[in-house]
Amino acid sequence: MLKKLLFLYFFFSISLLYGQEKPHYTQYIFNNYLLNPALSGIENYADIKVGRRVQWSGIKNGPRTSFLSANWSLGKDYLWSNALSLPGVDDNPMSRSYMQYYTSSPAHHGMGLVLMSDKTGAVSRLDAGLSYAYHLQLNSAYNLSVGVYAGISRLGLDLSAVSLEDANDPALAKVVEAQFKPDIALGLWYYGARFFAGAAMQQVLPQHFSFSATSVATGSTSKPILFLTSGYRFYLDEDLSITPSLMARKGFATPFFFDTNVKFSYKDKLWLGASYRKSDAFSAMLGFNLKNFVNFTYAYDLTVSELKAISGGTHELVLGFQLGAK
Question: Is 289 helix (H, G, I), strand (E, B) or coil?
């Protein structure tokens, strides 16, 4: 019995440590909205994305993440494209000659929603919430937006996936299989025709999770996570651009991570990219935009951490739709 209890304590502790962190996204450059609610309503179209991330393929019960995100502006004003925009249905290609007439977008409001499912072994997490942002027109060249996200997080445990010698072990009667906690995120985003920079804090409210119905001491409390992002778009010629960017991530209870990223784009119809995540992986990305309506991106992470001996790498697919361009 003691051996079983020790196993449960160890398993739940590791699972909670994992569960208090948000998933990584290799293609953050294509959907910063997942990290920062201040991007709600930044585009001239409703931006809808569906994604699937299979982390460390080859490792049984490794992390599996799925998400649906959508954000849109409120009002009827035309919003100029920014450094990370894709052309809308009626927009010209994002060439240098088109962008030279850029002006900042008028002040406006934006909204959005996020559904995210993350599962590792027997432990799963489901996040669902809404976001709001206000975009202030600072001057003729730049906007500053402020955003907030509010939602619910559910942490669950699938006992059928936990193998024990005795399925009727009394210790299992004291296990909490599902728990719900409020979740809040805050963000700032400064952007123009070529430059962007932002800061976001996720898990602003500490979330205490415990799978024990009799003791909170065996649980774990989530800590805020800070994201800092910045990048600049350079034109190599009329239609070919390169956008280097950097994303730093620091949890109050986790080590510092950073991603460096570079994206080569031809008229925003076809693009290639590469990135490096400190002490974790090298990544390659590719994507295309079809008729300024459907876009598809794929990323492959080559693991360089100690997991490389057993990991087949990480795959990430994202399908996007651009609806209702003004």
Answer: strand
Distance CA 197, CA 246 (A): 9
Q: How far apart are CA 36 and CA 33, in angstroms?
A: 5
Report pTM: 0.86
pLDDT in tens, 283-319: 999 999 998 899 999 999 988 877 766 777 899 999 9
Measured CA to CA, the distance from residue 322 to residue 268 in angstroms comes to: 13
Alpha carbon distance 274, 308 (integer Å) = 19
Q: Does residue 177 contact residue 156 with C-beta atoms inside 8 Å?
A: yes
pLDDT digits (tens, 9 = 90+) for 207-221: 777 766 665 555 677
Please give the Cα distance from 231 to 84 (Å, whole number): 9
Mean pLDDT of the chain: 84
| Residue 190 and residue 196 in contact, taking contact as beta carbons nearer than 8 Å | yes
List of residues 6+ apart from 195 with CB closer than 8 A: 83, 142, 230, 231, 232, 233
> Can you tell me the distance from the alpha carbon of 61 to that of 52, in angstroms, rounded to the nearest whole number?
15
Rounded CA-CA distance 231/243 in Å is: 7
Burial code (b: 16+ CB inside 10 Å, e: under 16) for 156-189 equals: bbeeeebeeeeeeeeeeeebbeebebebbbbbbb
Structure tokens belonging to residue 63: 């992390």
pLDDT value, residue 116: 96
pLDDT in tens, 82-93: 999 988 766 666
